[in-house]
Design goal:
Elements: E1 3-11, H1 14-30, E2 34-38, E3 53-59, H2 62-70, H3 72-84, E4 85-93
Antiparallel strand pairs: 1-3, 1-4, 2-3
Length: about 100
């Protein structure tokens, strides 16, 4: 069953964050993932939205998402993301079939 890494991000240093963004597509693909959402400005329909930038990456399963996140390749660029932004990342399973 698919799993998703979801990030709610506020970019604080666009130049630094761009260095991170340039390296993520290859790593996501290497670990079997694909971007479902990468940025955009949310059209908030209700309530308060916590971040101006949203990223959703789909992986074949939770194990693949974990391999990506825990990989030395990705952990090498995490400090770049953290220097250029603040936000929250979560790993979520897909909804079970109904």
């Amino acid at each position: 069953m698919p799993a998703y890494i979801v990030a709610l991000v506020e970019v604080t240093d666009p130049q630094t964050y761009d260095g991170y963004r340039a390296r993520t597509p290859g790593l996501v693909a290497k670990y079997g993932g694909r971007f479902v959402i990468r940025g955009g400005e949310p059209q908030v329909l209700e309530g308060d939205w916590p971040a101006p930038w949203v990223v959703v990456i789909e992986f074949p399963d939770e194990a693949a998402a974990r391999r990506f996140y825990d990989s030395p390749d990705y952990q090498e660029i995490v400090p770049i993301r953290q220097k250029g932004s603040r936000g929250t990342l979560a790993l979520l399973p897909a909804a079970p079939p109904t």
